[in-house]
Amino acid sequence: MEGFKNFVMRGNLVELAVAFIMGAAFATVVTSFTEVIMGLIGKVGGEPDFTAWTPFGLPIGAFLTALVAFLILSATVYFFLVKPYEAAKERFSATTEEDAGSSAEDLLTEIRDILRAKN
Question: Which has the closest alpha carbon to 65: 43, 28, 34, 33?
Answer without folding.
Answer: 34
